[in-house]
Design goal:
Elements lengths: L1 E4 L2 E6 L5 E6 L3 E4 L9 E10 L4 E7 L19 E11 L11 E3 L9 E2 L5 E2 L2 H27 L6 H4 L8 H8 L42 H9 L9 E6 L18 H7 L3 E2 L3 E6 L6 E4 L2 E2 L2 E5 L6 E3 L3 E4 L5 E4 L1 E3 L8 E6 L5 E4 L2 E2 L8 E6 L3 E9 L7 E4 L3 E7 L9 E4 L3 E4 L5 E2 L3 E3 L2 E4 L4 E2 L1
Parallel strand pairs: 11-13, 12-15, 13-16, 14-18, 16-19, 17-20, 18-21, 19-22, 20-23, 21-24, 22-25, 23-25, 24-26, 25-27, 26-28, 27-29, 28-31, 29-32, 30-33
Antiparallel strand pairs: 1-4, 2-3, 5-6, 5-7, 7-8, 9-10
């Protein structure tokens, strides 16, 4: 930490009837010692005369940590030294920089410096200092009152319109206190109202809307302001959350040091609108499944903490109603399947969902697929891994689209593809070979070089 002292001239006392002048023609940068983590101190910008060496010095005189709060050490003025303080510096506990508000100009303070008239007689500045301090304190009081008025609401900003007599009243508080509870309601004893009470309501009720007299209250400026104050939460930068088999959904906070226990918990704390990419890192197996719904914006990733490390979970993956890309990698589901379901599913107009090096296993259940898409969603499967226990490997329906890029499936499935009601299955891998598939009035597209049937 440093402070800069401007050029100037100082008069230092060498004896009872004579002195010396110390002149510095260039600005000087002085280093302030590192702050203590818990205790404050007051340092002084000191102009010092070493009478033994007949040398003038400009130094930072470090203050003491005792007592607390700190005090300014007295200048040394004896046979060996004469010191004056041109300024003092409050070194706050834990400070990493010096603020302008930390520095106090002491040049008019006769206890530390003062002004000289002729080299012998000083100019009295105590009264000037007192008056200046009083003026500054008065201005500070006025500013603090004004700031408080603004923070309290409308008392300051609308006073010239609603309080011309300067009674210092809050117009909303006054109206809320005088108005009837809610005579606009038709669901309670207040009735429809008449010429004298129709439409009366208490302003503070305008934003409750929970039950009884507060339901159905008309909008007021206060209600509109409250609604406008509600901000859409988002992530101002790329975001990372962590999940671990040793984590906790109760005491965890999603950091690498204190992870959650389930992927779904991490998903629940993400903002629904992603201004930047968000990644959930998984370390070890986790319980439950994944439901990703209602996200917009940037990309949502779910990946292993250690590159290429497979993690297991006990539930299925459902991605629906999103307007952002989603990518899940190295996830292996041990889902206890239900007939007619898919383990990795994109649904309901969701954006492109990409699953990379993922797989699933289940006990044999009718009409169960590891990968599926429906209702105009897109599922992009890269190196999909599957084992026996499935009726179909890839399933598409109602405008859903499954894109297959590579297939690591062992244990051949008799009917790996099923697409109907406008579902589309597209094969991108040129080495993909399969002999049979099932189709009910849909389209199955293959890339050049792929062999199907």
């Amino acid at each position: 930490m440093t402070v800069t002292v401007s050029p100037g001239l100082a008069w230092l006392k060498a004896g009872d009837f004579w002195g010396v002048s110390a002149f510095e023609k260039n600005a000087q940068v002085l280093t302030v010692d590192t702050a203590d983590g818990e205790l404050a101190r007051i340092d002084a910008v000191c102009v010092r005369l070493d009478k033994n060496l007949n040398v003038g010095q400009l130094v930072i005189k470090k203050g003491s940590y005792t007592p607390q709060p700190p005090i300014i050490a007295a200048p040394v003025r004896d046979l060996d030294y004469d010191e004056i303080y041109v300024a003092t510096i409050m070194v706050r506990a834990g400070a990493t920089s010096i603020l302008a508000s930390d520095i106090t100009d002491q040049r008019l303070n006769e206890s530390f410096c003062g002004l000289m008239r002729d080299g012998v007689t000083g100019i009295p500045t105590a009264q000037l200092q007192t008056q200046a301090s009083a003026i500054i304190a008065q201005i500070q009081t006025v500013l603090e009152e004004a700031i408080q008025d603004v923070q309290d609401g409308t008392t300051f900003m609308l006073r010239t319109i609603y309080d011309p007599s300067d009674e210092r009243k809050d117009i909303f508080s006054e109206l809320a206190g005088k108005a009837q509870k809610n005579h606009a309601s038709t669901t309670n004893d207040y009735g429809i109202g008449d010429a004298t009470n129709y439409g009366h309501l208490k302003a503070s009720n305008a934003i409750d809307g929970t039950s009884g007299e507060n339901d159905g209250v008309a909008a007021t400026p206060l209600a509109i302001k409250t609604l406008n104050d509600i901000k859409v939460t988002t992530n101002p930068a790329s975001m990372s959350l962590y999940v671990s088999s040793t984590g906790s959904d109760t005491t965890g906070d999603g950091t690498e040091q204190n992870p959650y226990a389930t992927i779904q918990k991490a998903i629940s704390v993400l903002p629904k609108h992603l201004s930047h990419d968000a990644t959930i890192y998984v370390d070890g197996d986790t319980a439950g499944g994944i439901n990703i719904s209602g996200f917009t914006g940037a990309k949502l990733n779910i990946a292993p903490k250690t590159s290429s490390q497979i993690y297991h979970m006990t539930g299925r993956v459902l991605v629906e109603n999103n307007h952002c890309p989603v990518e899940i990698s190295y996830c292996y589901s041990d889902y206890a399947a239900v007939s007619g379901t898919q383990v990795f599913t994109a649904s309901n107009n969701s954006g492109i969902t990409k699953v990379v090096n993922c797989g699933a296993s289940t006990s044999p259940v009718n009409e169960v697929s590891p990968y599926g898409a429906d209702n105009f969603a897109v599922l992009h499967v890269v190196n999909g891994y599957r084992v026996s226990g499935f009726g179909h490997a890839y399933f598409a329906s109602f405008g859903g689209r499954v894109v297959v890029q590579g297939d690591s499936g062992n244990a051949p499935i008799s009917q790996p593809f099923r697409a109907y009601n406008g579902g589309i299955i597209q094969i991108l891998s040129t080495s993909f070979t399969q002999t049979t598939w099932a189709s009910q009035g849909s389209v199955i597209v293959k890339s050049t070089g792929a062999t199907i049937g």
